[in-house]
Design goal:
α10 crosses α16. Helix content is about 25%, strand content about 30%. By secondary structure, the chain is of the alpha/beta class. The longest helix is centred in the C-terminal third of the chain and has 20 residues, at about 510-530. It is flat, with a radius of gyration of 31 Å.
Length: about 625
């Protein structure tokens, strides 16, 4: 009879053994219906890691939702969403844990459908190895190439090519050899260093757990044997100690610590460190963990550091080794995977989140996009859903970073839409644009307020927006005349006039509209710096660009004026005949017809230009503007 003490010792030994096992994170990816979920289900089932109730539920679900004619459908173990079972595809990333005597595993089953490529990138971001499945009947498909490119982009250098459904090709050696040859060529183009190719049948279990007699011509390892024995070198380049601050821990006035994970290097009590981007230096006085204080801590540990000096460090800052600090920059070259239905447009502002830091960012230029089939570089002015581009990024403030190849934690970022807060892109930093370091802001002795004071006014930008024919330019001109008569110094930037000069190289695509507004907003900003009241009359159809313009100005120095005129009224007033030409298809990308106008949500001034004369609307606006910027001239 086994005593309670012996049972406790056995349990302790079992837990110790599992605690010290190596952990391998891997993904399964590839095209739709290549058998990714079936393969993982087979691994879980044959590893004897399913409870009796899970087996019973699997048998029941296989009868109801299965695709194997009443036999066990292993894919149902990971396809948990109702929509996945109804459609027979994977939609979201499904994470599963399993363990063998040699190793622990966390596998991410990634969707194969092109629409869900963004989800695949999420799963690949933390993986050490990728299992790329290929249907033996179909060979390499576009999605196989796309997923392999993303695997390479995210720094995964070891791939297991699983040529699945060999049973449907009579286990023929030449079928496997041809696919193996094609994929190795692709891997070489992508810079994937190591590829292990295995022929298998996930449904029947051939070469999954053990080698199959059905393919006696294959002399390599089974899939599980390779996963158990593959050497995963996680050592990053020696960039020194790095701790991105996630939390400033201040439980009482006698303690102030900076908490976060160590993403590279090691730190010891007494070490000199530098906080970035501020550049302030100090020494480590304590390394605090949940289990007590340590003399030294290394990569992978979550710690709280206390410092000798009261220096300003906030969430999103990075604490680095004093002699090996990270780089700091505000302009980068980066790879961007676009993950939104609406396209990426250069010049449009987004939020960029890197670690715990959030900053405003714009893509200033798309250098090229990548053809996933050939890896050719193609010219592009926008990125559509699932496209990858090599871009230049500009941030509104400098951030500490590492190139992604050196450190994933400090080189990976996401872009967030500023209106919806949806994640629209994932990216990897390649390097800082050095030219940014050669440009410095030159301080001027006479500022905007001094220039405005000599004119007896306050600087202001009135941004008129509305459809073509809404009356923007007419009202702006009347306001300008009245302000001039009152002795104010003002100037009009009109959309048509500016397109004859500064913006004569721009058309009317969405990309050119964004750049059109960016340039005009910068000019308007310079005019307010000169102390002027500037009236900007542009359709400016997109909210994102109007918000970008507003953010260039100081608080209270920008006012959006929405000239609200219904489309049918604008068409009736159309002296230039532009709407008629747009309706006839002679003009493309015309706002209100085949290009959208996004109504302002919080305009500072809302002018309903239908039943009220333009003179009256202009006078109303002048009265409010004068009250805002100062008294009438004497």
């Amino acid at each position: 009879m086994i005593s309670a003490t012996e049972t406790a010792l056995d349990l302790h030994e079992y837990l110790r053994m599992h605690e010290t096992k190596d952990l391998l994170r891997f993904i399964t990816c590839g095209s739709v219906d290549d058998g990714k979920s079936t393969l993982i289900g087979r691994l879980l089932h044959d590893s004897k890691l399913l409870f009796d109730d899970q087996l019973a539920a699997l048998e029941t679900d296989s009868q109801k939702h299965g695709t194997q004619n009443g036999q066990i459908d292993f894919a149902l173990l990971v396809d948990g969403l109702a929509a996945e079972r109804e459609q027979g595809i994977t939609i979201d990333v499904a994470y599963r844990f399993f363990s063998t005597e040699k190793r622990k595993f966390i596998v991410a089953d990634c969707p194969g459908h092109e629409q869900y490529t963004r989800n695949m990138a999420t799963g690949a971001s933390t993986a050490d190895l990728a299992v790329v499945l290929v249907d033996a009947r179909k060979g390499l498909l576009t999605q196989t190439r796309r997923h392999s490119y993303i695997v390479s982009l995210l720094g995964i250098r070891k791939v297991l090519l699983a040529v699945n459904k060999m049973d449907l090709m009579d286990y023929r050696r030449e079928v496997f050899a041809a696919i193996k040859h094609d994929y190795r060529e692709l891997a070489q183009q992508l810079g994937i260093a190591e590829v292990q190719c295995i022929p298998l049948s996930a449904l029947n279990g051939d070469n999954v757990m053990t080698r199959s007699s059905a393919m006696d011509w294959y002399d390599g390892p089974s899939l599980l044997e390779h996963l158990e024995n593959v050497d995963i070198d996680r050592a990053a380049q020696d960039v020194g100690f790095r701790l991105p601050v996630q939390w400033v821990n201040r439980p009482h006035q006698n303690f102030r610590g900076f908490a976060g994970p160590i993403v590279s290097g090691a730190v010891a009590v007494g070490d000199e460190v530098v906080a970035l981007p501020s550049g302030r230096r100090s020494q480590v006085t304590a390394i605090v963990t949940a289990d007590g204080e340590l003399a030294r801590a290394g990569e992978g540990q979550a710690v709280t550091l206390t410092l000798a000096d009261e220096i300003d460090i906030s969430r999103g800052d990075v604490i680095c080794a004093g002699k090996q600090p990270a780089e700091v920059a505000d302009q980068f070259a980066a790879h961007v995977l676009w993950m939104n239905d609406a396209p990426l447009l250069p010049g449009r502002p987004y939020w960029l989140k890197i670690g715990a830091r959030m900053v405003s960012a714009t893509v200033t230029e798309i250098k090229h996009k990548v053809d996933v089939n050939t890896q050719d570089h193609l010219a592009a002015k926008r990125l559509e859903l699932n496209e990858v581009g090599y871009c230049n990024l500009n941030l509104d403030q400098p951030i500490p970073f590492e190139p992604y190849a050196n450190n994933k934690a400090l080189g990976a970022f996401i872009l967030i839409d500023r209106q919806t807060n949806a994640t629209v892109a994932a990216g990897t930093i390649d390097f800082a644009l050095r030219r940014a370091a050669n440009i410095h802001w030159h301080s001027l002795e006479i500022d905007r307020h001094a220039r405005a004071a000599t004119k007896g006014q306050a600087p202001l930008c009135l941004w008129f927006t509305g459809l073509s024919g809404s009356g923007k330019s007419t009202i702006a001109n009347l306001v300008d005349r009245r302000l001039h008569a009152l002795g104010y110094h003002s100037y009009i930037l009109d959309g048509d006039n500016v397109r004859h000069g500064l913006n004569k190289d721009l058309g009317f695509t969405d990309e050119d509209r964004v750049e059109n507004i960016r340039r005009v907003a910068e000019v308007a900003k310079l005019m307010t710096d000169a102390g002027l009241i500037v009236l900007v009359s542009f359709i400016s159809p997109f909210r994102a660009e109007r918000r970008m313009a507003r953010e260039l100005f100081a608080e209270g120095e920008f006012a959006e004026v929405f000239v609200d005129t219904p489309l049918e009224v604008c068409e009736q007033r159309d002296a230039k005949g532009l709407y008629a030409k747009a309706r006839a298809g002679k003009i493309h990308n015309f706002t209100g017809i085949d290009s959208p106008y996004e109504l302002p949500e919080h305009a500072d001034f809302h002018l309903h230009n239908v039943d009220i004369a333009a003179d009256a609307l202009a006078q109303q606006l002048v009265d409010q503007v004068v009250a805002r910027i100062g008294q009438h001239k004497r």
